[in-house]
């Protein structure tokens, strides 16, 4: 592969794939990439990562996401949880995704909902912000996927609701997981 | 047979190092040169696909774009319609922009090209995608802030300013964290794929 006399920095390429550049900057990168095999290769490597991040289902999903999974042939089990109540979730053999419906949330004036997924013993694992939420049902949906088995089983979900006119509130759901493989 | 193969290899290596202008000039005059056309596909198919992924934001639409653009480009090559051979890459990009614009305007995907029309497009190697398990394992190794910035940037598609506000960081700091996290994730995923 030929070398590039003035390569595009990886910072700019990351910004390109993160939609953090204006139209003129995007055009300039397109022009450089079409003329430069080295930078095209680097851009392709970063696109691979951006695609992987966009293509996965995050821990928190919308009802439409659930229907997409179901339409794609995934075997789904749904269960319900209420705050401050410890209830074990059994991931049965043959199930692809468990949808945990975290209920009992006051979402009528919610502007934003964030979910922190943590191990009770080891602390935070993932944080998902601006998650989808169902105002009428007062719930947030967690998509528990089989490959989460690799993570600690003593899972707790902290759901933080940012209200329009009052201080944020946090509800915690303790859901130890058992995987029947 | 062995000699022919060796000649072909040597010729292909010469083509790989040829400038865009040299490629164009070799097919000037209505000649059909399969080797040059294959080299054009090898060289530009990945870039056209990247353009499609960025601007059409759909894997299938990007694949269709590769087909449509290469058909136009190779027809232009055969017909000697490349007026500035030294700027061949700009011709390909211009074709790409026009075709993507038409695809977006029509809001429909391109009709698949008959493979017999352009068999050499298959020569373009497409990269393998990373698996979800590998991504999750590599994500888990990142610190919480890095994971959250990536999640908000690429999945929730939040702007840098929104992310900065949510995480109580500056926009500049979000960019630094995102850049470092992407490189760490790339290294981890490429190692696990190797």
* Helix and strand run of chain B: HHHHHHHHH
Please report which band the strand proportion of chain A falls in: under 5%, 5-15%, 15-25%, 25-35%, 35-45% or over 45%: 25-35%
Low-confidence residue ranges of chain A: none
Count, helices of chain B: 9
The beta-strand count of chain A equals: 9
Overall spatial form of chain A? elongated
Quaternary organisation of the protein chains: heterodimer
Question: Would you kindly provide a written description of the structure presented here, covering whatever features stand out?
Answer:
- The complex is a heterodimer of chains A (about 180) and B (about 190).
- Chain A has helices at about 10-15, 25-35, 35-55, 65-70, and strands at about 60, 75-80, 90, 95-100, 110-120, 125-130, 140-145, 155-165, 170-180.
- By secondary structure, chain A is α+β, with helices and mostly antiparallel strands.
- In chain A, helix 2 (about 25-35) crosses helix 3.
- Chain A has 2 domains: about 10-55, no CATH class; about 60-180, Immunoglobulin-like, CATH 2.60.40.
- Chain A is elongated.
- Chain B has about 190 residues and is an all-alpha fold.
- Helices cover about 70% and strands about 0% of the residues of chain B.
- Chain B contains 9 helices and no strands.
- Chain B has helices at about 1-15, 20-25, 35-55, 60-80, 90-105, 130-140, 145-155, 160-165, 170-194.
- Chains A and B meet through helix 1, helix 2, helix 3 and strand 6 of A and helix 3, helix 5, helix 6, helix 7 and helix 8 of B.
List the helices and strands and how they pair.
The complex is a heterodimer of chains A (181) and B (194).
Chain A: H1 10-17, H2 23-35, H3 37-55, E1 60-61, H4 63-71, E2 76-81, E3 89-91, E4 97-102, E5 110-119, E6 123-128, E7 140-145, E8 154-163, E9 169-179
Parallel strand pairs in A: 2-4, 3-9
Antiparallel strand pairs in A: 1-7, 4-7, 5-6, 5-8, 8-9
Helix pairs in contact in A: 1-3, 2-3
Chain B: H1 2-17, H2 20-26, H3 34-55, H4 59-78, H5 88-106, H6 132-141, H7 144-155, H8 160-167, H9 171-193
Helix pairs in contact in B: 3-4, 3-5, 4-5, 6-9, 7-9, 8-9
